[in-house]
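Obj.: predict assembly geometry.
Materials: sequence records (below).
Method: joint structure prediction, all chains together.
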Amino acid sequence: MSKPVKESAATATVTKPTDREIRIERIFDATRDRVWRAFTDPALVAQWWGRGNKLVIERLEVKRGGHWRFVEHSPDGVHGFEGRFREVTPPGRLVQTFEWDGMPGHVVVETAIFEELGDGRTKVITTSLFHTTEERDGMLESGMEQGLNQSYAALDRLLATFDDKKGRT
Amino acid sequence: MSKPVKESAATATVTKPTDREIRIERIFDATRDRVWRAFTDPALVAQWWGRGNKLVIERLEVKRGGHWRFVEHSPDGVHGFEGRFREVTPPGRLVQTFEWDGMPGHVVVETAIFEELGDGRTKVITTSLFHTTEERDGMLESGMEQGLNQSYAALDRLLATFDDKKGRT
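Observations (raw structure tokens):
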């Protein structure tokens, strides 16, 4: 039996700290180790990253220089995403690039910080750096925030249920 | 018999138009169609891109969204480079990303413009956009300019000799 999910942080906080960045904060009701696993284990990523849609993990090499490529099968079509890891420091920091097939060669650098809150919850702070303000604003206008909240809601559900071999305290 | 190479533009002009860009100008003694082919035909790219060193073209898909990956075998080691095409408009404009395996996830957007000068020569203007000034300056301090001039000298030699099925006027 899993404990009930706290709904205290059901939407992400999205801000624009500079003219080429997006900053996203979201609290998850799980330890940092569990959240890290959900972001880096292909079997777990497949269950939440694609907004609840079918997600094929074609490649996910979680190491400096490793590549990743996911294909999301959504009602509005098939969307490919890919990038490469710049820095992998478990369980606190992950830096990678992000590119959508629909806008090839438009590359975002995403820095994710995983902060243990001390009460069994974890705050994930993601900062996305774009080459231009236009690309940053295009991302904000693309429905990104809604998609993000759908994915994070799927992650909430996963974190509440997934088998943790180390057990929970 | 090939005509003698004019040595009027033997080094590239490198400038910093903004705090995140590098601009490179270089004139080649060949028509725009020939220069375009030298930049996009794998058999030709292999002969000049790697500063005269052995270059393995693992992938070169010259189309929007296509990927490229080259591996240079130089006296100081093996270096991988890769990226993706954002825009391919023959024979005048090529936009692609560039990333060196030694600094994975540090992605440059390179826009190359091919200008016909009207006298059988072609000017190539490349503008590289970095995510940060630090990355731009790191590239400038890496010996980029020397490597670039070595590659372009190899390209001069190739352009003077390579078989052009369309013939030369």
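Conclusions so far: Confidence is low (pLDDT under 50) at residues 1-8 of chain B.
To do: check interface contacts against the pulldown list.
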